[in-house]
Amino acid sequence: MDRRTFLKQGSMAASLPLALSASGCATTASKVAETPKVKRVPGTLSWVDGNAPDYQSGATWGYPWKQGERQPSDALKLIAENGTAIPLQSWPTAYWPDGSVKWTAHAIPAGAQPGNHFKILAGKGPQPAAATTVTEKSDHFVLDTGVVQVHIGKQGRDLIQQMRRNGKTIGQSARLVGLVQDAPVNEPEQPAAVTAFESNIESVTVEQSGPVRSVVKIEGKHKLPNGRSWLPFALRVYGYAGGESIRLSHTFIYDGDDQSDFIRGLGLRFNVVQRDELYNRHIRFVGQDDGLWGEGVKGITGLRRDPGQAVRDAQIAGVATPPLSEWDERVSSRMHWIPVWNDFTLSQLSANGFAIKKRTKPGHAWIDSDQGHRASGVSYLGGASGGIVFGMRDFWQLHPVQVDIRNAGAELAEATLWFYSPEAPAMDVRFYHDGMGQDTYDEQLDALNIIYEDYEPGFGSAYGVARTTDFTLGIMDATPSRQKTVEMASSIAHPPQVVAAPADYLATNVFGGLWTLPDRSTPAKAGIEDRLDFQVKYYCSQVEQRHWYGFWNFGDVMHTYDVDRHVWRYDIGGYAWDNSELSPDLWLWYSFLRSGDPTTFHLAENMTRHNRDVDIYHAGRFKGLGTRHNVQHWGCSAKQLRISTAAYRRFHYYITGDDRTGDVLNEVINADKALGELNPTRKVARQNPMPGMAKISAGTDWSATASNWLTAWERTGDDKYRDRLLDAMRVIGEHPLGFFAGAFGYDVDKQKLLPYDDVEPGISHLSAVFGLIEVNTELNQLLDVPAYKAAWLEYGRLYNADKATQEAALGMSKRPNLSAAHSRLTAYTAKETGNSALAKRAWQEFGRTQEFAGKIGQQDRLSTTHVTGPDVLNPIDEAPWVSTNDASQWGLAAIQNLALVPDALD
Q: Which neighbouring-strand residues pair with 149?
């Protein structure tokens, strides 16, 4: 290593510099900020990012309850920090086995300001001053927030027919639009054919009708001029009491032919009624931080003649100017010579740059206006007498994106919020290589040994993956002030979220209670806490430095690091996108539950919002299954339940009340039936021990199936799911080998496990690391099946045991892999049996992890090396020893061992 390289990579090693903000993992401000420290007070609720939002357009969240504490019929009220009662709408989202409520979801009206810490208590609270309602008409529904009314169509293209306020129609004809071309590149020599398409409604369902929150779900497909229907979508319209805006949550499923259907644009389009004079019409684009680009459709500042200070100030502020008669006549008599700017575009084609341009009309040149780094995705189109504030959550993060405003000078202007920009290259979801001659299973397994990719022809398909985009439409009776516009933009881009205190999540014993609050009472415990903090901060910094953004990518992280190139292995088979491999979702959600840390929450939520849509198939031959890690999120041929499992998504649903996540939990309830169509072990286990039956592993398949059924049972209270669980648990528990049986036959029609005859014992390092430990903790908590629990405790005793112990019990032995990860299984067995020797052994196993060098309290490892050019494209901070597998499983083991056997840690 020469001196220059040493100075760059060696002496610059330092503790991890943070590039975090309160609203997410990436820096959205021009300055680097420390992770916010938010005070969580037991017994109270708070905003995930700390202080109450400046603009509050209605909020929804989830809250846990102890078994027996709350009944479904109990009334609840919200008490603000100042002691006043705030209107609250509540509904149960999960039940304990005795029928008592386990989780509730809650909503408060727009504009309600409960403060920074507030409480849910038993009792009846007040009704909102202006309740929200949904009324059915002949051809539409009217969702009324008490301030604005939206007419939701029952059929046709227009999802929202009208948006009204104070008796006036402000906006109309909100619909989905798109462009598709028949070739990936529009070559001059062979121009691609581009076709436009629009939404077409098939069904409308009123899910809630107030008094605080109303929800209407629209389902349909997009329709092309030739009559073809494709890209199924579901869109929910949310209205909160007293709100001047509505929220839209839109999900579409890709069901095209990846060889001929190249999406060129996807957008939400609507019209705005323009009643004001051209000089009293205003365009606003919110940029980064508090940045705001604001101009008039007919500009009256900077002219050769001055219309007057009051006139200029009014247009800049976005209020009506004084009457034309009060202007300087040298301007008012020449207004017809001032250009009308009809069209405006803001395009953000990458995470690191946007541009604004405008033109007078089609057929004339675009004029560059300005550029910036990251736009918030919030705009305004309208005038002094009203208009629409519109925006999108995670705008630049989900690039390429764009905002088009057209015909601003006409009586009916048009806005399109493109959540896939038509200025970007067409979306190409084809598989990234030609198979390289991997025609047989043997060849595919051999290739797996070099690039860690499980390839199979035809399996790297995006058919059935989905993406969700959240929009807000603010129906304004005047152009909002510049300050209000940026406050609205902050709320739209990063919706404020309410959470409970960590102590309250823990006290209810939800999710098995497999965690404790952070504890730094000893050097060893402090060392563990330091690494837990480090891992979250490190991954957040990597999201930003590695630009893990984009339409299909945002929310996921990479699997493994390439030390030589100083990059994550983004282009190497199964080492690229992680796709929930070894449970990073669980690690992050348990980390949030114990810490209440906003950065952890945002990293976990972004991951869930990605994985629930992109990494799971929602249609087609693989429906209900997920895809193993790969260069493309859908690229690997291993389509498995271990990725689509409800175990990873139920945290988000219960904590936030997110309806889209709830939809996905419903989708996977019977995902186990896919085992009858696709055997996950088809390449290595060529013969079926039970012909005519499917195969279900006692590890990854069963953990996913059990999580899906458990979630369905607690969400619905339907005992058929409990009975399925009980039956399967008895089959596993009564088998002589228990979990060491490895796999069972599976009757997909009856959804029953069937024991194989004469099975040899087996030990797989993957069986327990996709949620099996966590779901078994809950099953043993909720259901009394002694044989099942005994089999699980035996698995925990033996997995990491020495050779002699394994051979004495099983007649075979296997050196355990992922021993540190499985130390929490040993710890669980120690806790349940009161075995102090096993408790000590658990910590010894935990210390075996190579990356942590066996030194739990070691501090010098928790640092990064700063690397700059020419060794890398952009300056980065790297910790080459970090892998997502290890970070996830080490994190889970650390959290759970501290909860199970804390006193055995020396």
A: 144, 164
